[in-house]
Design goal:
Blueprint: E1 2-6, E2 12-18, E3 24-29, H1 40-43, E4 51-56, H2 73-87, E5 92-97, H3 99-110, E6 116-122, H4 141-153, H5 155-166, H6 173-184, H7 188-200, E7 214-219, H8 227-236, E8 240-245, H9 252-255, H10 257-269
Parallel strand pairs: 3-4, 3-5, 5-6, 6-7, 7-8
Antiparallel strand pairs: 1-2, 2-4
Helix pairs in contact: 2-3, 4-5, 4-7, 5-6
Length: about 270
Amino acid sequence: MKYFVKTSDNTRIAIEDINTEAEKTILFIHGWPLNHEIYEYQLTFFPGKGYRCVGIDLRGFLASDRPYKGYDYNTMAADIKKIIDVLKLDNITLVGHSMGAAISIRYVANYNAQGVSKLCLIGAAAPSWVKTKGFPYGYTEEDVIRFINNSLNDRPNFINNISNLFFYRYISRDLLKWFDDLALSSSPWATTQCLISLKNERLFNDIPKINIPTLILHGTHDEVCPYEFAKYLNENIKNSTLIPLTESGHVPFIEEKIKVNDNILKFIENN
């Protein structure tokens, strides 16, 4: 089932809602510069295990509206709250990847995890995507500015170069093309505005506010969000479990989909 939910600024967020009669729900938040279809191997797995799966396109991506404003984490976290409220979701597992994981952390911090009982962070762009004085991991601000300029001047080439960074192991040319197509379906404006947010946002103060069980899945060969990010999260989220994925880069839910799906399933079913 596909439909839209309107946010507080009348932006329509596209929803794909699978197995709506199931009692337990998993809400998937994609990362930059993708959309909910990147979770293909989860959206075809978990419904068969008895779960309702809700995949959303963040504002500016794929089928959602493409407004001029609202690409900061607070606004996108508010969009998630609106979806949870409108769909009357409760006791859900919130799964976020990359920037989507960062936005999921902001949601939990801003709204005291309303409606969410468990959190899963995959390749999280947190606590900070860029290096800071006390956190020497990730890109520099100059790197991200270069990314923005490359996107504005030759977005197809920029996306192709970024896509190659996402994967650790060999993948087929067809899968890489599919991945590029997903990324290029995004609004060019949203693509650059989210890069600005990734450059500017910090989650150091949000992370200690997470008080729900948290599963951290992270590829040890991740070049987009270094594995040190995951270690920081594990050390600073009280009730967290870190599972290193040794055959993955930034998209372990594709490269090690069976292991990722099995670990998420165990996490959800473990009371």
